[in-house]
Amino acid sequence: MADSVNPVKGESHPLSNPASPETLSLKNLTITDEHPRSRQGHGVGHNHAIPRGPRYPNANRYGLSGRGFHSHHRQGAAHAGRGGSAGFRNPNLPLGPDAQMHQDFLTVRNSMRRQFKNSDVAKWKFSDYVAHREAINASEANKLVHQAKAKEEAGEYSSAISPETQAFLRRCGLNGNFDEVGNSGRALGEQTIWCRDWQNGKEDVAPWPSFSEMRWEGDDRAKTGVGRFLPLPREPGPPSLTWSQLPAIEQYPMDQVCQIPTMEDVYLPVDPDIEPDHEYLWSKELEKEMDALLES
Questions:
Q1: How many CB atoms neighbour CB 209 within 10 A?
Q2: Where does the record place Polar residues bias (predicted)?
Q3: What confidence tens digit (pLDDT) does each residue in 88-142 have?
Q4: Interatomic CA distance for residues 242 and 245, integer angstroms
Q5: Per-residue three-class SS string for 173-192
Q6: What 3 state SS string does 69-128 have?
Q7: Are residues 228 and 207 in the same domain?
Q8: ∠ at Cα 181 (175, 185), nearest 5°?
Q9: Are 212 and 243 in contact (CB under 8 A)?
Q10: Rounded to whole angstroms, how far apart are CA atoms 127 and 150?
Q11: What is the reported pTM?
């Protein structure tokens, strides 16, 4: 077999595999990149670090924004409007009182111009809106003053019943709590929460019913044709429990409403004596037979 000749040095060596590690010089192998970013560390190009971009490619950078995970709202601005790339108004941006009032004025004026362009409000200036707001605040302040004055006058009102009137009411059969002492009602004298000292003798006071309970006992029940029921007083409980799982507080007999009628309520109001003009509807012979059956 003939020997191969090295054309560079003119030396001959035995024939070997040209892809073997002995024939390849990998130590002096270098890779040169002519891109400007590759020359940052060699004194060429920029000396400051390039800001990092998004880790993952943004498919909506130059097109329509995608939809959110929990709704159909498109996140981000689809187009660069008058406000720049973020053309929407940030509701969480803190504004001063004057800037907030001016923003409210623009919102009201633009809405009125769009819906009622010939109205007086659509022609308002900012000064007119400020005067309108001041007039509303003054009206609300006067309303609060009148309410406080009426409450003070109601507290000073004396509801005392004279002894002569009390004696007359007792002769009529009304033995009520006329002096309003204790937790008894003023007219019938029964224990009730509808009195001045209603917390006297009440160990548990029920909190105000929740919105879901009032809706269940009110609007939802009215749709069935049964009518509206007052929510029952219930014991306070943790927020994890629903209102139907809370036990009801015992009420006074006077305060119980919408009770299921008993047999006594059904048959007791019946008058045992039959009116003369209704005697023809009743059989005297049947009455005698029934009396004989009961006596036997």
A1: 19
A2: 14-31
A3: 555 566 778 888 989 999 999 999 999 998 999 899 999 999 999 999 999 999 9
A4: 6
A5: CCCCCCCCCCCECCCCCCEC
A6: CCCCCECCCCCCECCECCCCCCCCCCCCHHHHHHHHHHHHHHHHHHHCCCCCHHHCCHHH
A7: yes
A8: 50
A9: yes
A10: 35
A11: 0.39
3-state helix, strand, coil split of the chain in percent (to 5) is 35, 5, 60
Count of domains for the chain: 3
Q: Which residue has the higher pLDDT, 149 or 259?
A: 149
What lies within 8 Å, CB to CB, of 213 at 6+ separation is 231, 243, 244
Contact by Cβ (8 Å): 3, 15:
yes
Query: Which residues does residue 13 pair with via DSSP β-bridges, in sequence order?
Result: 4
107 is a domain residue: yes
Same domain, yes or no: 109 and 131: yes
Q: Which residue has the tokens 């059969």?
A: 173
Residue 53 covered by a domain: no
Which residues span the domain enclosing 191? 161-202
Dihedral class, residue 180 (left if φ above 0, else alpha if ψ from -120 to 50, else beta): left
The pLDDT of residue 4: 47
Q: What is the CA radius of gyration of the chain?
A: 46
Region 57-71: what's the mean pLDDT? Answer: 51
Same domain? 238 vs 212: yes
C-alpha distance from residue 294 to each of 143, 207, 241, 274, 287 (Å)? 72, 53, 55, 20, 11
Specify which residues 191 forms β-bridges with.
184
Give the pLDDT score at 111: 92
Q: How many CB atoms lie within 10 A of CB 76?
A: 13
